[in-house]
Amino acid sequence: MFDYNFHWRPVMKSLPDLLEAALLTLQVAVLAMALGIVIGLALALIRLHMRGPLLWLASSWVELARNTPALFQLFFFGFGLGAFGLHLSPYMIVLVGLTFNCAGYLAENFRGGFQAVPDTQLRASRSLGMTAWQAYTRIVIPQVLRIVYHPITNQMVWAVLMSSLGMLVGFRELSGETQFFASRTFRIFEYFAVTAVIYYVIVKLILLGSRLLATRLFRY
Amino acid sequence: MEPTVSFFSGFTPNDLLFLGEAALRTLWISVLSISIGTVLGVAFGWILFEGKWAAALTIAPVLDIFRSVPLIIQLVLFYNFAPIIGLNFGPFASGVVILTVYTAALVANVARGGIEAVDTPMRRAARSLGMSYWQDLRHVVLPIGGRAVFPAWVGVALGVMKDSALVSVLGYVELLKASQILMTRTQEPFLILSIAGAFYFALSYPISRYAAFLEKRWIQ
Amino acid sequence: MLKRFAVIAALMSVSATTGIADTLDDVVNRGTLRCGVVLDFPPIGYRDANNEPAGFDVEYCNDLAAALEVEAEVLPVTWAERLPVIVTGRADVVFGATSDSLARARTVGFTIPYAIYYAQGVVNADSGITSFDDIRGKRVAAAIGTVPEQEWLKIAAEWGEENLYQGYQSENEVFLAVAQGKADIGITTNTAVLPITQQYDSVLAGPRMPWTTDYTSVVGKRQDVTWLNYLNLFVTHQVRSGRYDALWGKYVGGDAPELRIPGVMY
Asked: CB distance A179–C177 less than 8 Å?
């Protein structure tokens, strides 16, 4: 019944390449998160304060990002846009797809965060002579950040995990690189087992880093 | 001399039926995995809550693995590992197994949160009224804790429904795989992706809106 | 849960091969033949207008099943999956235009060649590629886990152009990428060139690739020599009965190439 020999040697030989690809995974996830936070913030503010076509656009973005599979979104940014002659490289497909998705999810978190900060605080700071910009950046946003800190960490983990879909659109990040090597040696199980461990370590490092950062940021 | 058969054909109404059947398969694999996974997850959540350090040392880290490794890697690993240990699991069975465990891992945390959301004094009161431990769980913890985490559970369920798209990598012809097949045959990626996206959206959007509506009503 | 992992760990430490595989007996006994076939490789394997498997390789699977008097079950696989399905025992045999490289033969067993191809490009009409040297500086696409990919990456490494390579999951995605202009040239096999160029106005036949002819074999479990013997016999019978010529004419067109390797006894 047990008619299979495990070969670990080729995997160990390509471990340096896999680790290098893991850095690419991290890079695209971090970039997508950074962009996602900025865009998500904008989407949340639009949905809270604006009317008209901008609101419609922001709402469509958020709902589409949240109600369709991430893999579908990547396909769309790949071959879907390609039908109109818009060509993104595999790296850009993943970056744009991840950003689109993260921005949509973060926007909802931010909206919840803004709604949790009472309006009275904004009015109080204005009556103390702050400009609207000052009131926002000094009073409201720091509180919102504290509320959404945990969801942002989760989204960061999710971005790393989701970047693995890059292998299906030809991007050689950690999963894509693993698939590439596995397709040459046919040792799918062995390669993906090692890759699973690498992902696990990355996720744990992110959670640890986030916890350390939180103790510094939220001392008061 | 030319070959006597043609290899590509355009999009026909018949293909819409093909997509519809595939959408039903997406629904079926999701419903199956979410129901079994939820039952398992609630059980795990209860163990996590009651088991204290014993659970923290045993099932908690195992469940954690399923949340820290990309689902696509889990699927590829299990699909390639099952035949090695003599399990003849096809794409559907492999997909159900992994999606179920994945759901259970996510629901476990939600369920524990739900149990924790019920104040200890209230549970003590229930017990002092003469309720047994199980009566307390059934009549106090389930309705109160369940309401508190219902939106989170809907989020998990919708997430799993969307993530079921990943079973396509094993060759199970669900909605996304069906659109890939049609895309390669008809070479009309934009049209087909739009239809598939609309299907997913139609499955997910109403449920997420209804959950948000319920959440609002319960808060009042 | 932990217990299960302990069992798995124990199983993994055992590396002895137990029992002798006998696929032939298994297939006859089971009553079904499980064939791995690549279905995004027209005209060798594709899906017809009803989305059912069709093509040269699918017919070969049906013929083999008929010879064994069992039911044929087509298991659609990607290029990258076609050998692992043999290693893990998910399929009994693979008809998947598999080149019989020595590297692969360390993992799976090959029959005598059952079809012969050579590698050729399909180019985007705007790419301006007419000869092999024109490919310098252009975006090249191929399917992951194929010989064209590996051979191309060797050349790309010499040219320092590995960053211009795009690997796709399937041959059809390669064609789509070339048609849409995401890639300038897609490397495929000569048999696919005609249907692809007929399908897309934006795709033209490209140059032939400089590496050697692709002798492709039927794939079975490496350890199971009696099964490979049976498959060898099947391949020769397909030729002797005229089935090979007929199917080649139906799907590819023209005369079927002679399955003979010059200057060597196979």
From this structure: no
Could you tell me if residue B4 is inside a domain? no
Read off the tokens for C40. Answer: 């995004």
Does C86 lie in the same domain as C62? yes
Q: Which of A105-109, A193-197, C80-84, C153-157 shows the lowest per-residue confidence on average (mean pLDDT)?
A: C80-84
The predicted-structure confidence for A56-83, as pLDDT tens digits, reads as follows 999 999 999 999 999 999 999 988 888 8
For A41, the 3-state DSSP assignment is helix
**Which pLDDT tens digit goes with each residue over C163-220?**
889 888 888 889 988 988 889 999 999 998 988 888 888 899 999 998 878 899 999 9
- Structure-model confidence comparison of residues A162 and C14, the more confident one: A162
- Full domain range(s) for residue C132: 119-208
Flag if C180 and A85 touch (Cβ within 8 Å).
yes
Q: Name the closest residue on chain A to residue B204, using Cα atoms.
A: A67
Name chain B contacts of A204, Cβ cutoff 8 Å.
68
Task: Quote the minimal CA–CA distance from B188 to chain C in Å.
Answer: 9
Partner-chain residue, chosen from C17, C84, C169, that has the shortest CB–CB distance to A3: C17
Domain A17-217 part of CATH 1.10.3720.10: yes
What pLDDT shows up at residue C107?
86
Shared domain for C44 and C66, answered yes or no, is: yes
Q: What is the pTM of this model?
A: 0.86
For residue range B146-155, what is the model confidence (pLDDT) as tens digits? Answer: 888 998 999 9
Q: What angle do CA B87, B91, B93 make, to 5 degrees?
A: 60
User: Does any domain span residue C12?
Assistant: no
Q: Is B99 exposed, middle or buried (0-12, 13-18, 19+ CB in 10 A)?
A: buried
- Supply the ipTM of this predicted assembly: 0.90
Q: b vs e for C143-172, b when ≥16 Cβ sit within 10 Å of the residue's Cβ?
A: bbbbbbbbbbbebbeeeebeebbbbbbbbb
Residue of C nearest to B188 (CA): C176
- Distance, CA of A153 to CA of A160 (rounded, Å): 11
Do the domain assignments include residue C1?
Answer: no
Query: What is each CA distance from B92 to B88, B214, C93, in whole angstroms?
Result: 11, 33, 21
Instruction: Report the distance separating Cα C222 and Cα C103, nearest Å.
Output: 13
Q: Are B14 and C50 a contacting pair at CB < 8 A?
A: yes
State how far the Cα of C157 lies from the Cα of A46, in Å rounded to an integer.
49
B94 is in which domain, residue-wise?
Answer: 17-219
User: In this structure, are C113 and C221 located in the same domain?
Assistant: yes
**Rounded to a whole number, what is the distance in Å from the CA of C2 to chain B's nearest CA?**
7
Alpha-carbon torsion (C144, C145, C146, C151), positive or negative:
positive
CATH code (residue B105): 1.10.3720.10
Chain C residue numbers with beta carbons less than 8 Å from the beta carbon of B4 are 249-250, 253
Residues C51 and C110 in one domain: yes
Local structure of C131: helix, strand or coil: coil
Structural domain count, chain B: 1
Regarding whether C220 and C204 lie in a shared domain, the answer is no
Residue B58 belongs to some domain of the structure:
yes
Chain A interface test: which of C23, C182, C202 (most A C-beta within 10 Å):
C182
Same-domain check for residues C96 and C134: no
* CATH number where C146 lies: 3.40.190.10
C10 located within any domain? no
Q: Is residue C98 part of a domain?
A: yes
Residue C237 burial (10 A CB sphere; 0-12, 13-18, 19+): middle
| C173 and C97 assigned to the same domain | no
The answer for residues whose C-beta is within 8 angstroms of residue A69's C-beta and 6 or more apart is B162, B163, B165, B166, B176, B200
Structural domain tally of chain C? 2
The minimal CB distance from A79 to the residues B163, B189, B204 is found for B189
